[in-house]
Amino acid sequence: MTPEEIRAGLGKDLVLAMSDAYGLVTVDVAPEHWVAALTAARDALGCAFFDWLTGVDSGTISLVGPDGTKSS
């Protein structure tokens, strides 16, 4: 399935971003649209297996190195 076919099946309003690397298409969907996107993937695209869901907290983080110094 091409990225264009996936975008058409999910609907352009659900897709925030899409990437295609080495034949693997990744779709970014806002959390409030996850159920709608999964339903469209099942019903419109015929997908029967859900592989991965992850969330990213893009807030400010501080990293502490092994020597105890902080970086952000």
Largest sheet: 2 strands, antiparallel
* Amount of helix: 25-40%
Order of helices and strands: HEEHEE
β-strand percent reads 15-25%
Give the count of helical stretches.
2
Q: Unreliable segments (pLDDT under 50, ≥5 consecutive)? A: none
Radius of gyration: 17 Å
Structural class: alpha+beta
Looking at how many chains there are and whether they match, the oligomeric state comes to single chain
Largest sheet, spatial ordering of strands = 1-2
Principal-axes geometry comes out as: elongated
Mean pLDDT: 84
General description of the model:
- With 72 residues, the protein is α+β, with helices and mostly antiparallel strands.
- The protein has a domain at 1-50.
- It contains 2 helices and 4 strands.
- It has helices at 3-10, 34-43, and strands at 17-21, 24-28, 63-64, 70-71.
- The protein has a two-stranded antiparallel ribbon with strand order 1-2. Strands 3-4 form a two-stranded antiparallel sheet.
- β1 and β2 (24-28) form a beta hairpin.
- It starts with a helix and ends with a strand.
- The model has no long low-confidence stretch (mean pLDDT 84).
Brief rundown of the structure:
The protein is an alpha+beta fold and 72 residues long. Helices cover 25% and strands 19% of the residues.
List key phrases describing it:
two-stranded antiparallel ribbon, elongated, alpha+beta, two-stranded antiparallel sheet
Element layout with pairings:
Layout: H1 3-10, E1 17-21, E2 24-28, H2 34-43, E3 63-64, E4 70-71
Antiparallel strand pairs: 1-2, 3-4
